[in-house]
Amino acid sequence: MLPTPNGNRESMVQRVVRQIQDSQLDAEITIAIGEGQRDAISCQLGNTVGLVTEPERRDTFPAIALACLYLEKGKRCALDETVVVMPSDPYTDENYFRVIGQMADAVEHSVADLVLMGIEPTYASTKYGYIVPQSSNGIIRKVECFTEKTYEERAKELIDSGALWNGAYSLSNWDI
């Protein structure tokens, strides 16, 4: 449990939901969870977010696909609506959510159909995907290649080639 600004305690997922709400992002929140997490998350968040339950854990892409299917079929979202995909457990400050807003704006203004957030790695992690950006001066750069979670030695090689951790996605035209 983490301290809140008013001195209470909250879980990491409660903190992220609060930060999204505090950031004034125009967002309806839906969280993809495993069956074993459903009761705990429901108790922590109540009816403040939508929950999509994965029948079994299959990693990131299947969870995103399931959530998008839920948004399309269950929530009746338009296929050109911008969707932001981010972890529900980062310990980060409000600047992260400002960048999330910029990513959504880039998609909404047709800069790209898919925008990834690159985070400067501090070590070779097997828990993140890696983005190798093309060199550019701007904050939004084209991606040379993307590597999903990999083994440590390959992660080191990617970091040596300038790769960034993948910290979030913003996408549009997400028809499944």
Account of the 3D structure:
This protein is of the alpha+beta class and 176 residues long. Helix content is 33%, strand content 23%. It is built from five helices and nine strands. The chain has helices spanning 12-22, 38-45, 60-74, 94-108, 152-160, and strands at residues 2-3, 9-10, 30-34, 50-54, 83-85, 114-119, 130-133, 143-147, 164-171. Strands 5, 6, 7, 8 and 9 form a five-stranded antiparallel β-sheet that branches. The longest helix is centred in the middle third of the chain and has 15 residues, at 60-74. The protein is globular. The termini are far apart. The model has no long low-confidence stretch (mean pLDDT 85).
Tag the structure with descriptive keywords.
single chain; 176 residues; alpha+beta; five-stranded antiparallel β-sheet; two-stranded antiparallel sheet; 5 helices; 9 strands; 33% helix
Short description:
By secondary structure, the chain is α+β, with helices and mostly antiparallel strands.
Query: What is the first-to-last residue Cα distance?
Result: 37 Å
**Content of β-strand:** 15-25%
Radius of gyration, in angstroms, nearest whole number: 17 Å
Can you give the mean pLDDT? 85
What count of helical segments does DSSP give? 5
Globally, the shape reads: globular
Proportion in helices: 25-40%
Q: How many beta-strand elements?
A: 9
Largest sheet: 5 strands, antiparallel
Strand pairing plus helix content: what structural class?
alpha+beta
The topology string of helices and strands comes to EEHEHEHEHEEEHE
Which residue ranges are poorly predicted, with pLDDT under 50 across at least 5 consecutive positions?
none
